[in-house]
Amino acid sequence: MEARQPKEVEDARIAIFVKGTKTGEVLNGVMKDMMALKRPDAISFSKKNVIHPLDAQNTASGSSSMSSLEFWSSKNDASMFVIGQTSKKRPNDLTFVRMFDGKVLDIVEAGVENYVSMESVPGSKSTPGHKPLMHFASELFDTHPRFIQLKSMLMSLFNGEVVESIYLKGLEHVISVSLAPTPATLNTTTESTTPLPKVHIRTYTTRLLASGSRIPRVELTPMGPSMDLVLRRHTNPDPELLKQAMRRPKLKKTDVEKGLGKKRKNLDVDEMGDLRGRVHVGKQDLSRLQTRKMKGLKAGAFEDGGDDGAGGSGSDDGEVSQKKRKLS
Question: Which residues face 106 on adjacent strands?
Fold first, then answer.
């Protein structure tokens, strides 16, 4: 029970792979390869289950699916589910379910196309348990709400354990996620009727070669699996539950200075990692500002003189006479 309590730095998410009532050869291979990338934080249910998490909540199958997910999550201390099921209406359907505090947070459903298994790709494979380097190649992953949710879901699935530093040779594989050409009519702010572009997922192994410097030359070799995802249905997270899930504990001063967590008031960490502060001062009275004492700045120094007055002509005559004395 103590191990399952909330922590300042959470452990890696445990994902449960569940087969629906009907799965084909494609889905079986996809779930097998995704488990290989997720190991050792993966659990497989060999038996088929009647589960439909995206059905309406008022139906018997929808309510039973939610209760089953909550029960499995509590029993196995798992926070993610990958459900595979195929039907005539939705062939090769893959459903990602994310949990928080034993409750369903959000769901993303996608169809699998152009699948290439890991076994069919020759070459070496990555070691289980290593963190992947994830690459998202599209601006829609930062602007469109559907792809923002998908990016967050994939990172939660494959991110693994939180580490402070990474050994270069420990990056054995790369998961690249890119999009097909984006339609010009795609609206990035609200729901649009324009079909969303396909999501291309490719996996590569890394090779570190000599480059003549301290930084090696990196080559990517296809490892598998590779697949295309077509986004289908989804559910948005509950605002209150999402607020609780995004809450972070109070961090130490050293952590804030490193740029971690919520920043303190009037303190900011720039791109170079330097801590910069902002100082607020009260309103200043510039009339009392101490300046250099000069006769020309004194009040009333030019009040007696004028452009057409006698004082002005007298001063000019005095200056002319002084020049004549110097010349003589």
Answer: 98
Flag whether 258 is in a domain.
no
CA gap 84, 30 in Å, rounded: 9
In a domain, 153, yes or no: yes
Ranges of beta strands (E only) in the chain are 15-19, 42-48, 80-85, 93-100, 103-116, 133-137, 173-179, 199-209, 217-222, 226-235, 267-269, 275-277
Domains in the chain: how many in total? 1
Torsion on CA atoms 186, 188, 191, 195, rounded to nearest 10: 30
Task: Provide the pLDDT for residue 301.
Answer: 54
What domain range includes position 104? 15-182+194-252
Cis peptide upstream of residue 122 (ω within 30 degrees of 0): no
Q: Tens digits of per-residue pLDDT, 197-246?
A: 999 999 999 998 888 888 888 899 999 899 999 999 999 998 898 888 88
User: Do residues 20 and 83 make contact, with C-beta atoms less than 8 angstroms apart?
Assistant: yes
Residue 320 placed within a domain: no
Q: Which two tokens stand for residue 267?
A: 């303190």
Per DSSP, 182 falls in state P
Name the β-bridge partners of 93. 85, 111
Global model pTM greater than 0.85: no
